[in-house]
């Protein structure tokens, strides 16, 4: 049985959590010991261990980064697709806009490994070029946007 429908359900629930700021709605999608590899160290954390830490970090990064922009639009580039071992992956982009700064496009590949209907390992992958572009954007515009990625755990 394919994990793609469950991944799509998770992605929809994630966007509802973004809108409502109720991150508990994502609990059914992750195992208690889920691991999230963030993939972009400049976002303040490289890895989350456990569902509770992961959900806390989702809120922190949305408040500390995404919500600092006027708009956030998602764009699907490729997928979803599923490998023989059941890992679902997509390539996409988040397009951020705010007055007084250029549009920022953050491209990534997201991969989710499931155990049953729960994600046990979530990983975001960024190209080296994307990492460099992100660092340059934040160095130039982060302060203007009020972005502070030094989170207290």
Structure commentary:
The chain is of the alpha+beta class and 153 residues long. It is built from 3 helices and 6 strands. The chain has a single domain, classed as Nuclear Transport Factor 2, Chain: A, CATH 3.10.450. Strand 3 and strand 4 form a beta hairpin. The longest helix has 18 residues, at 128-145. The N and C termini lie far apart (38 Å).
Concise synopsis of the structure shown:
By secondary structure, the chain is of the alpha+beta class.
Topology:
Blueprint: H1 4-20, E1 30-37, E2 47-49, H2 51-64, E3 71-82, E4 88-98, E5 101-115, E6 118-125, H3 128-145
Parallel strand pairs: 1-6
Antiparallel strand pairs: 1-2, 3-4, 4-5, 5-6
Q: What's the CATH architecture name?
A: Roll
State the strand order across the main sheet: 2-1-6-5-4-3
Whole-number tally of structural domains: 1
Q: What form results from the Cα inertia axes?
A: globular
* Biggest sheet features: 6 strands, mixed
**Strand content bin:** 35-45%
Structural class: alpha+beta
Q: What is the ordering of alpha helices and beta strands? A: HEEHEEEEH
Radius of gyration, in angstroms, nearest whole number: 15 Å
Helix content: 25-40%
CATH class: Alpha Beta
């Amino acid at each position: 049985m394919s994990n793609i429908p469950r991944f799509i359900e998770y992605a929809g629930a994630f966007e509802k959590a973004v809108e409502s700021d109720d991150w508990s709605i994502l609990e059914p999608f992750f195992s208690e010991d889920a691991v999230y590899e963030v993939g972009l160290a400049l976002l303040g954390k490289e890895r989350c261990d456990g569902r509770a830490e992961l959900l806390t970090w989702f809120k922190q990064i949305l408040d500390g980064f995404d919500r600092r922009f006027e708009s956030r639009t998602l764009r699907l580039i490729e997928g979803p697709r599923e490998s023989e071992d059941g890992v679902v992956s997509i390539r996409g982009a988040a397009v951020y806009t705010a007055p007084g700064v250029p549009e920022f496009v953050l491209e990534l590949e997201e991969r989710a490994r499931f155990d049953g209907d729960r994600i046990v390992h979530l990983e975001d992958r960024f190209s080296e070029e994307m990492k460099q572009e992100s660092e340059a954007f934040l160095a130039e515009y982060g302060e203007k946007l009020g972005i502070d990625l030094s989170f207290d755990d």
